[in-house]
């Protein structure tokens, strides 16, 4: 007898909108997502005692006989084998039961003693995490490139990779910051090697971070003078007071998003509302952090706009599923749609979050990339 609790096989029951009684449908739902369900466990546990017996699992497998499984996630099949096997022997009754299903193929390897850190013992949230623009899409592109196809990697996030000449100012400033002062900003011929504005900016930065230059640890929030620059920018842009104590500098936007979501998502009932379509960093990190995503659809026919009715509907559905919406992401300008929300849409989102006590995550990484006439 194998002691597998409902919590183990049923921790992701919410992914299934309605119970399915057909064992084949249950297995397909389980295997296609790598997520288990309470319904699957209950189907296996025929006598309802909360434990799985060999005969119960064998009966379940026999019900799958003749079912075509070639399109199902092989990792998920392996996970089910590992969850229901009763021994590591290739000749065990469970292995024989699985081998009655020809579509499963040779599974002897998964019944060998696994390493202590393997695909089943690792964090399953990491396995479920999907970040297409840095994962699946890139792997497919690299495969096509190996076959001789000409691939343009526009996912790379750097226009230099597709032929744009670098803006030299930033690189020159970094060069002076990294060089020892005697070879850089204090060199007698520095102004003949670098433009004056580059030298001035490098001096400001080195005064802020110390003469040794880059590479040393800073406070967790970042260098104070840099945070003051951000405060000045926000106040100039928005006309609203800001404080350095509220500013956190991160290693790129992705790290910033992860830091915020890490602080927000306390358990697997916590959720974040994200726009659909959306840049996959949000769905990937929410999955990694055991949270749940609640999508709100952008209206393409109305310029990818947002309605209060849509937001209210999605919130109500999520609450009926036992979820607590902790935050809402607003991506403006949008990615991948490229739309710029109207002032009315922004006001709708802000008021909705204020009324519901939801943290608003305003993703404005493309704020300087607005080219449509009349948009800002």
Automatic annotation (TrEMBL):
InterPro entries for the chain: ALAT1/2-like, Aminotransferase_I/II_large, EF_Hand_1_Ca_BS, EF_hand_dom, PyrdxlP-dep_Trfase, PyrdxlP-dep_Trfase_major
Keywords, sorted A to Z: Aminotransferase, Pyridoxal phosphate, Transferase
GO molecular function ontology, one term from the record: calcium ion binding
Tagged with keyword Acetylation: no
Pfam families: Aminotran_1_2
SUPFAM superfamilies per the UniProt record, alphabetical: PLP-dependent transferases
Record domain EF-hand: where: 32-67
Keyword Transferase among UniProt keywords: yes
Cofactor(s) this protein cannot do without: pyridoxal 5'-phosphate
Domain of life, source organism: Eukaryota
Subunit annotation: Homodimer.
Homology family: Belongs to the class-I pyridoxal-phosphate-dependent aminotransferase family. Alanine aminotransferase subfamily.
Entry protein name: EF-hand domain-containing protein
Organism: Triparma retinervis
Source lineage: Eukaryota, Sar, Stramenopiles, Ochrophyta, Bolidophyceae
């Amino acid at each position: 007898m194998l002691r597998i609790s409902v919590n183990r096989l049923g921790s992701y029951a919410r992914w299934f909108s309605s119970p399915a009684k057909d064992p084949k449908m249950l297995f397909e739902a389980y295997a296609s997502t790598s997520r288990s369900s309470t319904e699957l466990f209950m189907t296996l546990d025929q006598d309802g005692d909360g434990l799985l017996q060999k005969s119960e699992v064998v009966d379940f497998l026999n019900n799958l006989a003749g079912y075509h499984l070639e399109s199902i996630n092989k990792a998920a099949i392996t996970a089910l084998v590992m969850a229901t096997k009763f021994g590591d022997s290739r000749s065990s009754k469970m292995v024989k039961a699985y081998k009655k299903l020809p579509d499963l193929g040779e599974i002897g390897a998964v019944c060998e003693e696994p390493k202590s850190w393997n695909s089943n013992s690792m964090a399953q949230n990491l396995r479920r995490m999907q970040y297409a623009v840095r994962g699946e899409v890139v792997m497919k592109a690299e495969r096509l490139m190996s076959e001789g196809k000409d691939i343009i990697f526009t996912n790379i996030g750097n226009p230099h990779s597709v032929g744009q000449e670098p803006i030299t100012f930033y690189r020159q400033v970094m060069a002076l910051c990294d060089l020892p002062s005697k070879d850089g900003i204090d060199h007698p011929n520095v102004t003949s090697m670098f433009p004056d504005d580059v030298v001035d900016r490098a001096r400001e930065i080195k005064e802020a971070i110390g003469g040794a230059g880059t590479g040393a640890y800073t406070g967790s929030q970042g260098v104070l003078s840099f945070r003051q620059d951000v405060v000045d920018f926000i106040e100039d842009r928005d006309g609203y007071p800001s404080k350095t104590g509220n500013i956190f500098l991160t290693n790129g936007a992705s790290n910033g998003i992860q830091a915020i979501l890490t602080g927000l998502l306390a358990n697997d009932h916590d959720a974040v509302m994200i726009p659909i379509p959306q840049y996959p960093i949000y769905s990937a990190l929410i999955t990694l952090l055991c949270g749940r995503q609640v999508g709100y659809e952008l209206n393409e026919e109305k310029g990818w706009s947002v309605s209060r009715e849509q937001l209210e509907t999605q919130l109500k559905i999520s609450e009926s599923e036992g979820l607590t919406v902790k935050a809402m992401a607003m991506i403006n300008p949008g990615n991948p749609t490229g739309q710029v929300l109207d002032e009315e849409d922004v006001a709708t989102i802000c008021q909705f979050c204020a009324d519901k006590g939801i943290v608003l995550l305003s993703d404005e990484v493309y704020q300087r990339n607005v080219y449509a006439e009349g948009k800002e």
